[in-house]
Automatic annotation (TrEMBL):
This is Calcineurin-like phosphoesterase domain-containing protein. GO terms for molecular function: hydrolase activity. It comes from Arabidopsis arenosa (Sand rock-cress). Residues 55-164 form the Calcineurin-like phosphoesterase domain. The keyword Transmembrane helix applies. The chain crosses the membrane at residues 519-537, 846-871, 1291-1312. CDD domains: MPP_Shelphs.
Length: 1318
């Protein structure tokens, strides 16, 4: 056999040479570099401590930018023009973060490895270190990877696999390991074109991966060089105590795949770890923890300073804490800030200095950054430092791009969505994102049309917002040219904004993913653009560009005014004030007056009124204009309590507030909490008439007179007196509608501001409920409508009132609400107004009424004269006569998916708004806002357990033991492994229990700025979400966590759960006490059982005979015919309320009962407890009915009740009738919406009337109405004596009949028996 036919025979003698050749071939193909031979021995122990060299150079983060890396080595004189080592015995330390944010990561790794080998031969040293981005990539966290970075690793993988195939030809070599072993082919939520790059990156960088093992195992995690200690993030005393050498070896072992699994050692993870710490990297020196730094350095003998990277220093390399902490990350990579490269040099003879590529500074003595100073090399960069990251080949240098999908993710690592930060409840925070619950009403009114202001809509993918961006730059040039006349240039403006940076960030409710330079640029561009508009419109500066499209085109300025008053489109007002003051362009005019002059074109007010508001203090432009609408003088507000108010949502609007609606639990304002009981303040006096009012036309029918109020300063100045409601004119157009809706959103978020606009909008929303109401107010001169049709106006006020929290008792219009309700509750006013409206509303009804009255009078006169003629006949006159899973039906399965037949009625009623509980809705985009708060609550929960000496791991053990019970509680296969299921249950369960503990005051909670408890719209939404059938966890899980934690021992779980939901259900404490012993499957079942009358709380399991609920006449007859087979002649569905009323049934509200389900019938009278119908109640009904339908072992009390009410409320008039009888309190919408709700909820549900707890009520009502006498008598009374006016008409007709009969009698009598003498 020839050698060509047996290539393995050729290789057998030279395997190592072939392997070396293949490796060199692959290296050059990937990097373009021939690596010299490595002089270091294999498996050398990683050195931690080094002697101080003659010259030491420190280089910061490189982040995938090879050109900037070379430039950094060049300015330190370390390499020659051919990139070869040229600095002899110099020692270099690169502090980590070579990976991520760029596309040349592998090339830099090869470049550094080449210099390491060359420096070693020349007597020098190059140390490379692990940064947080190296740790993240080894763990598989690729959230900062760029597209080019994926492509680079994909190229490496192709060459590496080719090299392995070449090695397999040689029989003398071991078979190479497949680098892709165990890596999936695809990844969820990742674009398919990124799969190959992600797989290659995992293969290269995971523990024991070829690139990780070859390059990153040589990295130190911490190094001591002479009197300096190097680390990427920072060192604490606890790290040093653990052992620096031990840390280096353990991290190296983890990268080699020897121990630790996928995740790094604990000291490399978390905010206080070696690679993530920022305690010594704060930009302002006074914020750095110098005491911790001193303590850490004192534990390392001979060390004077700590040198670190990790945190970008916009001011350039600098030091704090008396130069004991030196920060060298200048963000030089194009993927970061594109800063100018700088390096730190430490010489044994001449000390420390900074070497920079800035042409203004070739060599600069090193100096620390003073606490109140921001000077430094970084502020003297050239123009590109203020530009966006450069573009290469038409692609952004970093990922993710806003118009792409969610970037490139790996396994369970997800790019975090923008969340509400924990400090969003601070007083300084005033600019918010609109939440999902408000935005869904009309997302367009919150988004700018042509200009973006501030960070929320900056760099948007919407092309229509880019039109004005070029004009912003043009206006900035004009602004700066004007300020130069006053000795002010752009640098002065930059300094001013730089000093306000942290204050600006604090003003936004989200963590801004903007670098310092980018934020300053956005604020200067937007702030100067706004000021230029103000100055030009108010003619404070000379502006001669008469062709400027912003002022030339008529549509632009009005649109700009509207965009400048959007909540998401704001910058802080203090920024505008600082820029205006610095510019000196309008020294005699305040910013307020400039703004008022600008907005006066859309909000017409006399100049004198604007001047009254000259001294207003506001958060931003929207807040400034909002405050000009407040009535002057403003009525005194209720003193703000030192604890947080928890509002009860919709129910608070409908009832007198009780002492329960007070504070977050019972948190005291004092620093010490004693065991002594303090006396509670006396409850406020009852206000029985405080509540929402009915619509304008209904108020008119009840005697309220509407009058336009003249000579007022604001449309909010509404008053009521002696039946007259005086309302100022509202000019309603697109601008005002946008202003109102954004002001309401701002007032919902900011707890420190008053709620006048919310109160006004709620009041007008009550008045304008239908198109006819809008037309009526237009006729009265109260409303000028330029918005659209009357129906569009009414829809606007309906929509704006949804999902907002509003307290009537704290409203400045509370007296108006109360006065109107009190006036209309008096029967005389209502009856008299109804009479006038019925008979004298129009000229035609007036004429008809007059004609009827005249006919009655003439008839009376006729009868009178006929009788008079009999007794005193005229002489000589003739008195003649005139003519789901298989086990889904088991008792343990209690949390089920809503079937399509029920979900199609109202899908949104079964889906959570802001929080997901359990597996069914986990991971949905609009629910991610609360996920971060769940983890924060878990930390709080665990901390409280540790304070009591309880191991938090007990929670995991307890939940793990319940895994089978938990899985059996759900109707579907969850598709989760044990670890993820236990994690989800612990996280959700502890979140719920923390809410219960804090609201009930059982656990002390001192974070008074927590947005969960501070923002009034969040808790009511969470309460509703916790009572959705698909959003449940088993109650046994909550009970187990409750007992394991031992945080509350004085109360049971039912007790604190009832106290949490009481803010929306509003029940007396004695009621809840009766249900402390209830057993339930989950929270929805627990609350459902509290509705069930106590004698009836038992399960009904026999469901053999089913009747499909339908109140139509045809199916009612079928129901009656079926029930006849069971000897229940009258058992069937009842008629509607109005029809029952016509057949003699009397309706009375039932009092002194604990349950709204406790309906009684006796002797023609239906006693029905009053039900308060609002969004919360509707949601509970829908989900309780679904639970009773889908859980076989549940009773059907709620279903029976809903079926009965659905029969009664069949039409809009039925709802109005029950409202008049005080059986229904409607805060759900119009009467038509209530009737449609009950119609929809009754479709496709099964109900056995014979086994219903209301069977006797159904039967009794039907039996009573089947008797003819009752029906005819009731119809007669209703027709003729239902109201005073029908009674009067019937009485008049009876009189007329009697007089006519008398007339006939006397006429006949006089004929047959004429008076004597005739």
């Amino acid at each position: 056999m020839s050698s060509r036919e047996n290539p393995s025979g050729i290789c057998k003698n030279i395997p190592n040479l072939i392997s070396s050749f293949v490796d060199t071939f692959v290296d050059y193909s990937v990097s373009g570099i021939f690596l010299p031979q490595d002089p270091s021995p294999q498996n050398e122990i990683l050195q931690t401590r080094f002697d101080k060299p003659e010259r030491l150079v420190a280089i910061g983060d490189l982040h995938g930018d090879l050109d900037k890396s070379r430039e950094a080595f060049n300015i330190a004189g370390l390499i020659d023009s051919s990139d070869r080592w040229s600095s002899g015995s110099t020692m270099v330390v690169q502090v980590g973060d070579v990976l991520d944010k760029g596309g040349e990561e592998l090339k830099i790794l090869y470049f550094l490895e080449k210099l390491k080998r060359e420096a070693e031969r020349a007597g020098g040293k190059v140390l490379t270190m692990n940064g947080n981005h190296e740790i993240m990539n080894i763990e598989g966290d690729f959230r900062h990877v760029t597209k080019k970075g994926l492509e680079e690793f994909q190229v490496w993988a192709d060459w590496y696999c080719l090299g392995n195939k070449m090695k397999t030809l040689c029989s003398g070599l071991d078979k190479p390991k497949d680098p892709y072993e165990g890596i999936p082919m695809s990844f969820p939520r990742v674009r398919a074109d990124c799969f190959d790059g992600i797989r290659a990156r995992i293969a290269a960088l995971r523990p024991e991966g070829p690139i990780a093992k070859r390059f990153l195992t040589k990295n130190q995690t911490v190094a001591v060089v002479g009197d300096s200690v190097f680390v990427h993030g920072g060192l604490l005393a606890e790290h040093i105590e653990y052992g620096l050498e031990r840390i280096n070896e353990e991290v190296r072992g983890w990268i080699n795949g020897l121990k630790g699994g996928r995740y790094a050692p604990v000291y490399c993870r978390g905010g206080n770890s070696l690679v993530w710490l920022r305690k010594f990297s704060e930009e302002m020196a006074h914020k750095c923890d110098c005491a911790a730094l001193e303590h850490a350095l004192s534990t390392i003998p001979g060390v004077k300073r700590m040198i670190m990277g990790h945190t970008i220093q916009d001011a350039g390399i600098n030091g704090v804490c008396n130069d004991k902490a030196i920060r060298i990350d200048v963000g030089m990579s194009k993927g970061c800030s594109d800063g100018l490269p700088e390096v730190l040099e430490i010489r044994r003879d001449s000390g420390v200095r900074i070497l920079t590529s800035n042409p203004l500074y070739k060599e600069n003595p090193y100096s620390h950054l003073a606490p109140d100073s921001k000077t430094g090399l970084g502020l003297l960069t050239n123009k590109r430092a203020m530009d966006p990251p450069s573009q290469a080949n038409g692609e952004s240098a970093t990922i993710p791009d806003e118009n792409e999908e969610e970037a490139y993710l790996l396994l369970d690592k997800v790019i975090p969505a923008v969340h509400l930060k924990e400090s969003a409840g601070d007083r300084s925070c005033c600019i918010y994102r609109i939440p999902h619950t408000l935005e869904r009403v009309n997302d367009k009114v919150y988004a700018p049309k042509i200009v973006s202001i501030g960070p929320y809509h900056h760099s948007s993918d919407k092309q229509h917002l880019k039109m004005i961006e070029e004009h912003k730059k043009r206006y900035l040039e004009i602004f700066v040219s004007k300020t130069k006349d006053n000795g002010v240039n752009l640098c002065h403006l930059v300094d001013v904004v730089s000093g306000l940076e942290q204050k600006i960030r604090d003003s936004y409710s989200e963590n801004l993913e903007f670098s310092r330079q980018k934020l300053i640029k956005v604020m200067i561009l937007d702030g100067c653009f706004i000021l230029m508009l103000f100055l030009v419109v108010s003619q404070k500066i000379e502006y001669t560009n008469f062709k400027d499209p912003i002022f030339k085109l008529r549509w632009i300025l009005p649109t700009l005014r509207s965009d400048l008053l959007l909540l998401e489109n704001q910058v802080p007002l203090f920024l505008l004030e600082a820029l205006l003051e610095t510019s000196k362009l309008a020294p005699s005019t305040s910013l307020n007056m400039l703004a008022f002059k600008f907005f006066d074109y859309s909000i017409k007010k006399p100049e004198g009124l604007w001047k009254k508001h000259n001294n207003l203090r506001a958060k931003h432009l929207l807040d400034l204009i909002r405050k000009t609408f407040k009535p002057v003088p403003h009525p005194p507000t209720i003193p703000r309590q030192c604890c947080i108010n928890i509002f009860s949502g919709h129910r608070e609007n409908s009832r007198t507030e009780t002492s329960k609606n007070t504070c977050l639990g019972k948190i005291s304002c004092s620093k010490e909490i004693t065991g002594a009981q303090t006396s509670s303040p006396p409850p406020p006096p009852p206000r029985p008439f405080l509540g929402l009012i009915v619509s304008a036309r209904k108020l008119r029918l009840r005697g309220i007179k509407f009058k336009r109020k003249e000579n007022v300063e604001t449309p909010l100045d509404i008053s009521f007196k002696s039946g007259f409601l005086e309302v100022p004119l509202l000019v309603f157009d697109d601008f005002i509608s946008n202003l109102l809706i954004n002001c309401v959103a701002f007032e919902q978020f900011n707890m420190s501001c008053s709620t006048e606009i919310t109160s006004y909008v709620t009041f007008m929303g009550c008045l304008i409920n239908t198109e006819e109401d809008a037309t009526f107010l237009i006729e009265k001169g109260i409303l000028e409508n330029y918005f659209g049709t009357g129906e569009q106006v009414s829809l606007f006020f309906k929509n704006i009132g949804k999902d907002i929290s509003f307290s009537i008792s704290k409203s400045f219009l509370s007296n108006v609400f109360e006065g109107v309700n009190e006036y209309t509750s008096q029967g005389y006013h209502v009856q008299w107004a109804g009479f006038k409206y019925t008979h004298f509303n129009t000229p035609w009804t007036f004429l008809s009424s007059c004609a009827a009255l005249m006919l009655l009078l003439l008839t009376i006169f006729q009868a009178f004269f006929a009788a008079y003629a009999y007794f005193r006949p005229p002489k000589n006159k003739d008195n003649g006569l005139k003519l789901l899973r298989e086990s889904a039906g088991s008792e343990s399965c209690c949390i089920v998916r809503i079937p399509q037949s029920l979900a199609r009625i109202n899908l949104k009623a079964y889906e959570p708004k802001i929080v997901s509980i359990g597996p069914y809705h986990h991971g949905k985009e609009h629910l991610k806002m609360t996920q971060q708060h769940k983890r924060r609550f878990l930390k709080f929960f665990v901390a409280k357990m540790e304070e009591k000496g309880i191991d938090p791991q007990e929670l995991v053990k307890a939940v793990s033991s319940l895994e089978g019970v938990i899985r059996g509680s759900y109707s579907e296969d969850l598709g989760l492994d044990s670890e993820k299921l236990v994690e989800m249950m612990v996280l959700d369960g502890c979140f719920i229990l923390t809410l219960f503990f804090v609201v009930s005051g059982k656990v002390v909670y001192t974070n008074l700025d927590d947005p969960i408890f501070r923002m009034p719209w969040i808790l009511p939404s969470i309460r509703a979400d916790l009572l959705l059938l698909e959003n449940q966890v088993p109650y046994v899980l909550l009970q187990t966590l409750f007992e394991t934690s031992k945080l509350v021992t004085c109360s049971g779980l039912n007790d604190i759960a009832f106290e949490f939901f009481d803010y929306s259900l509003q029940r007396p404490e004695t009621f809840w006490a009766k249900h402390y012993g209830l057993e339930a499957k989950h929270l929805l079942d627990l609350i459902r059982k509290t509705f069930v009358p106590i004698p009836s709380q038992r399960s009904i399991k026999d469901h053999n005979y089913l009747t499909i609920l339908c109140c139509s006449e045809e199916k009612r007859r079928k129901s009656s015919s079926k029930s006849s087979f069971n000897d229940h002649e009258f058992l069937g569905f009842v008629l509607s309320a109005k029809k029952l009323h016509l057949r003699g049934i009397k309706f009375k509200p039932r009092k002194n009962t604990d349950s709204i389900l406790d309906i009684r019938y006796s002797d023609g009278v239906l006693h029905i407890p009053t039900v308060v119908m609002d969004d919360f109640t509707a949601s509970v009904f829908l989900n309780c009915v679904a639970f009773e339908q889908l859980y076989a072992d549940s009773s059907n009390h709620i279903t029976s009740y809903v079926a009965f009410m659905a029969c009664l409320i069949n039409e809009e008039s039925d709802a109005a009738f029950l409202t008049e009888r005080r059986i229904l309190e409607n805060y759900f919408g119009t009467e038509d919406e209530v009737s449609r709700f009950y119609k929809r909820i009754g479709k496709d549900i099964a109900l056995d009337l014979e086994k219903s707890y209301l069977a006797k009520v159904f039967e009794g009502v039907n039996e009573y109405t089947s008797k003819g006498f009752h029906v005819h008598c009731a119809e007669f009374i209703h027709t003729h004596f239902d109201s005073p006016w029908t009674f009067a008409s019937s009485f008049a007709a009876l009189l007329l009949l009697m007089f006519a009969a008398l007339q006939v009698f006397f006429a006949a009598y006089s004929y047959f028996r004429p008076p004597k003498g005739k």
